[in-house]
Structure formats: structure tokens, C-alpha cells
Amino acid sequence: MSDQNKISTELLGLAEAFLQGKLNAAGSHRLEEIILSEVQYRQKFVEYVNMNSALSMMARQQSPDELFHESYYKRQNTWLKKERVTKLIAAATSVALVCCIGFVAFLIGNLPTPQIGYVAALSDGIEWSSPVLEQGDVVREGDVLKIESGYITIRTTLGAVVDVRGPSTLVMNEQQQFDLSHGLLKAVVPEAAKGFTVSTQDVQVVDLGTEFIVDRELGMGTKVSVRQGHVEANLIDINGTVLKTLDLYDGWSKWLDNGIEKEQDLAFHDEEFNSFDRFRGSVTRLQGCARASSVDLTELTPGAHVTKDHVLIIPERQQVSLTEPITVQTLEGLLQLKAGDLVSSYLVHFDPGKFNTKPPIGSVSFDYPVTAIIGSADEMLILDSVVGYEHATYPQFPARALELDVDGDKIHVSADRKTVKFNLDMLPPDNFDQFRILLVQQNQ
């Protein structure tokens, strides 16, 4: 098959994909490339899709060739008529080209923009100003995120993890470029996503391998804080021109304001970072009905925090260094923890109340392997004072535990031990459930 025939076959395949609504962004760009390369391909495409536009109207009239032959035989091929017909052919070709290019431009403009990531986690009770997103939803270039309260986590395809706390407005221009109109954003950026940039009206913050926060209040400038690593902060004027370039490292904070075109050092405080830690800890993804908590919970007894249509995943104390050995019964047998082991705990809390429309099925994934699941009331009680919230009130009754009979609660740990899947029994009377997920770094 000649190259020309191969291209013609490819063109028809792309045109067919378009007609079936299956043409993706890459296909549309290839279609445009072929159409613009030669007149014959433009003609083939126009004929195939049979556009209901100026071109189709022309097609119902005499063709340029018919006009030419009619002129030739009736007017004895005078140069005047030939010139007119030539102009008509040129005009028809031009119209065809314009229609074709315009149609392809319209097609490309209406295709989904490239995917840049997905929603990895949501808090309970999140309030939206933009269209509502669910966990697992794809986010694309140009999407605008507006939340009035609560938390959301976006994970980009290059692995950058972006947490946003409401009220915030965020424009996701492209995978490596987010614009924060106002609000609070934390980013953790791996080596693969180095160069990830967050811009506000005051500053461009370019990641150079780090964990940082950008906090902007309307009319109050922008605060940039680095917990670890290194960022480049560029103070910009109202036209986007860089006025000053600053390097920020571990434990540094800066305030920048383009209204007065100044920057100032600030004392570093961990509070904002800690608020995000309490939101999800080392959780990388929530699925199904799993949700993170948007507030610090100190009352975890029945009825105190009802979880209608969701199950809460609550980061408790993190990296607790044990002062003495502890032996606890887990779902997989006895676990012996030594003094000096670092323990991080996540409480799974289900208190459905009276009215629910969704089954309590979901999963939670972590950065690190899960060491154990604690599901008995007695073992939970032992750990309440060790890894639980310092001032929290926990249930003291046996029904707090998992019921792992045939028709009861079901818990499964993935083969790589980084994901815990659950399917909880929501039928009364024993439908209040709590269990703990422990991640342990053992003292060698």
C-alpha cells in the first residue's frame, strides 16, 4: 500500500471515529494535521462527514467541474469565461478549506482537555461553589475548583499531591501550573513533578523538590511557607513581570504583596501544615464511601458524630514513640510492639444514625504498608490512651467492635498491604463500628 493510500485509510478511520463520538484529543490533532497537508485530503474529509453547512449547500448545486464544462461547450472556451470559472473553483476550494478548518477547530475546541489528575480524597461535609466532584473524578486542564468549606486532595498524573482547604478558588491550568485566586493550598511534590508551580496575584511559587503551603487572602498578599525542601518564589507585579526572585528552604516563610511590591520574612509556624496532617495524615487515596474528617473530633461516642452515607477515616496520633512494649490482638493474630517503635493510628468510624441511602463500602490507601487492623473492643480500649486523641472521648462498650461473622463486617488488606478495603454491616442494632489501622516503623 502506498503512503498516500495509507494516509487516506487513516483519514477515513479518524473521520469515522469523529462521527461515532470516539475521537480523542490526539486523534483530533492528527486529523487536523492530515487535512491541512493536502487539498485531496480536505476533499475526502468534507465528502465523508457531509457537513450541513455552506459546503453541503454548494454540493447540492452544480459542481465546479460541471460549471467549467458547461462554460466550455456553450461559450466556446472564451478566456473571459475560463477566468470566471477558475475564480469560482478557487472560491469553492477556499470555502471548502475554511469550512473544513473551522469544523476541525470547532471539533477540537469541544473535545475534553487533557487529564491532569484525579480527586484522591474528600472530607465529610465539603461545600461547593463549583460543580460537585466525587472521589475518583478526573480533573482536566482549565478546570476551576471552588469550595466554601472542607478539604479536597488532587493527585496529578506526575504524582504531585495538592490539598486545598475551603474557602478557596483554584484554576488547574495544566498539570504543572495551578493558579490560586484565594485560599489555602498545600503541595507535596516528588522528583517526577519537580517544577510544579502555584501562582497567585502576588507570586509564582516554583517547586524544586519540597512540601510547601501557599496562603492567599484577597487584598492581603500571599504567604509562602516551606516545611521541607526548596522553592523559588518570584514576586510579580500586576502585569506578571517578575520583580524579585527568592529562594525558600526548610522552615522559611515569606509574605509577598504585589500591591506594594514588597516581601517580608515571617516566623515559621506549623499550624497550617498540622491542619492538613489531621485531614488525611499519610492517606494517599479514599474510595467508595470513605471520607476524611474536616474538623478535629473529640467526641466519638454513638450519636455524637453521625456519618450519614459515609465512613470516616480519622488520623489519630502519628509517629508515637512507644515508651514500653505492648502486645495487642489483631485480626491476623498477636502483634508485639517494642519500646521505641513509631506507631501511627487511623480510626475508622461508622455511626450511620437512622437514615442512609448508601452501603458502607470503601477503601483507604496509604504511603506505607499497613501493620495491623485492631477490631476488638478490649484491644481498642488499650490503644485509646496510647494512639488516640489526647482529649477525645471514646466508647466503652463491646458493641463498638467489629462483628466478623458470616453476615457481619468484612475487612480485607491488599497484597501490598497499602490498602484496606471494608464492607460494614449497616443493619441495627449493632451497626455502630470502629476499628483501628496501625502503621508501625519498628525500632531496630
TrEMBL record:
Stored Gene3D superfamilies: 2.60.120.1440
Superkingdom to which the source organism belongs: Bacteria
GO molecular function: sigma factor antagonist activity
One Pfam family this sequence matches: FecR
Keywords assigned by UniProt, alphabetized: Membrane, Transmembrane, Transmembrane helix
InterPro entries (alphabetical): FecR (IPR006860), Ferrdict_sens_TM (IPR012373)
Record field: transmembrane: 88-108
Record has Membrane as a keyword: yes
Keyword Membrane tagged: yes
Residue ranges occupied by any FecR protein domain in the UniProt entry: 173-232
Protein name listed in UniProt: FecR protein
Protein species of origin: Calycomorphotria hydatis
